[in-house]
Design goal:
Blueprint: H1 26-41, E1 46-48, E2 58-61, E3 68-79, E4 82-86, E5 96-100, E6 103-109, E7 115-121, H2 123-135, E8 146-147
Antiparallel strand pairs: 1-2, 2-3, 3-6, 4-5, 5-8, 6-7
The chain binds ligand GNR and nickel (II) ion.
Length: 152
């Protein structure tokens, strides 16, 4: 396990489209482990592989109910709308309101190669959208409708 360096906005790796994972080998497993460790160390609720410089469709999320590992996640259904304040470990100190679906269903593959479906509402829906956006080279900064001052 290792903490990886989190890339910051301006790094071109963050605006590239990630490649699908075709083989879940030891490097992918190691990446998942390191991403979880890096996310927890940074007190994040999610982390996408491009944030640690890897252009693979891999993300991890933990909104307080334990870690979720996502390989090749795809949004297959959305419902409703919510507006909430977002931040990003790749844009420290920047916060802004973003409109997201209230509920999203995602299909993905787990580390054993099995496909699964996950439905999230509220923050989990936001995190799923935010991380999948990263995999397509999209940052929340470009979706902010109003930047917010947050006292830290
Ligand atoms: O840690 C994070 N918090 C967060 C808060 C509101 C909406 C989205 C997020 S994701 C962010 C971690 C991150 O940058 N993931 O890519
Ligand atoms: Ni982010």
């Amino acid at each position: 396990m290792a903490i990886r360096n989190i890339r910051k906005a301006g790094d071109e790796v963050l605006i590239k489209k990630c490649r699908e994972v075709t083989v879940i080998d030891d490097r992918v497993i190691q990446l998942l482990e390191d991403m979880k460790e890096t996310m927890y160390e940074a007190n994040g609720v999610g982390l996408a592989a491009p944030q640690v410089g890897i252009l693979k469709r891999i993300a991890v999320i933990d909104v307080g109910d334990g870690p979720i590992e996502l390989i090749n996640p795809v949004i297959v259904e959305t419902e409703g709308e919510q507006c909430g304040t977002e931040g990003c470990l790749s844009a420290p100190g920047k916060y802004g309101e973003v409109i997201r679906p209230e509920k999203v269903t995602v299909t993905a593959t787990d580390r054993n190669g099995d496909n699964f479906k996950i439905t999230g509402e509220g923050l989990l829906a936001v995190a799923l959208c935010h991380e999948i956006d990263h995999l397509d080279g999209n940052l929340f900064l470009d979706k902010v409708i109003r930047f917010v001052e947050v006292e830290q």
